[in-house]
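Revision sheet: structure tokens.
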Amino acid sequence: MTSIHPLRSTTPRSLQTWLMLAAFLGWWMLAGARAAWGSSDSLQVYFIDVEGGQSTLFVTPAGKSLLIDTGWPGHDGRDANRIATAAKLAGVSKIDYVLITHFHDDHVGGVPQLVQRIPVGTFIDHGPNRESTDAVTVKDFAAYEKVLAGGHYGHLVAKPGDVLPIPGMKVEVISADGQLIGHALPGGGEANPYCKASEVRPPDQTENARSLGVLVTFGGLKILDLGDLTWDKEMQLMCPSNRLGKIDILVVSHHGWYQSSSPALVDAIRARVAIMDNGETKGGSIPTLELFKKAPGLETLWQLHFSVEGGPTRNTAAEYIANPVGPDSGNYLKLTVSPGGSFAVFNPRTGATKDYGTK
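Predicted:
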């Protein structure tokens, strides 16, 4: 009996100690997760590496999700897999809305593979493909139409001025199917002095000029993503007056290729941060990198890849690049936005986070 009584007398106290330790460990893990991934009232944005294409995932505090573009087809489902991984990191098992900016291979090509890996609610686009002379674009659009024709998804055609039905953040359409928003947004409307520094270029005839571009507003902070909208359309939007006003975060148009990113846009919006979804050998043009080095108000240019064209002197600093030259690592960049307007960018390659306070 003497060997039993100590066990009986100490079991409740041991159990209580264990439960207290478990509770502390749970709190500590939750605190760590919130520090790394953002608190429950923050907007999460994943800039997914699709090797010079585009795929950007927004997840609201309530878990509602918007994916802008799906990357490339092929590559054994590489891009769809990376999107599904980002969704899991963000804590969502379904993508509520998928917005297709335009029907080029690196933006819409991944749709058939994506729907095989994660449920999707509604697709949003600018309407029919307008680039009927390019065989790859025609093929990709046909594959996208086939997915829609299956009847499993909602479908919206967006027009400039529309506000998309995504609770938890405001997503306003700026450009679609070659048309632009016709009025100045709050904070916009002033004469744009940077129009004089932007050369006039002929109209682009591809799907790029048809890009469905949006302005995302969360807690007063503004994120601009115009897809691959071209230089000539930027000039129409921003000249003679700046219809957009000041923007906090710019998703660099067209992967940083010189067909976009006019001073009339980049310099006038005075973004604090720019994020470029370039590849190692796609996008990141020298003139564009040089423009961002001198952009008024810009604190940091982040890049998904080191640009081989840019070389060692023109790329942003190494700590702001997700993927250096070398083997494909597929690193993303993550933006976390608080309701108060402060935000942070996390680079998983370095494990470092850069914080940006309110302004």
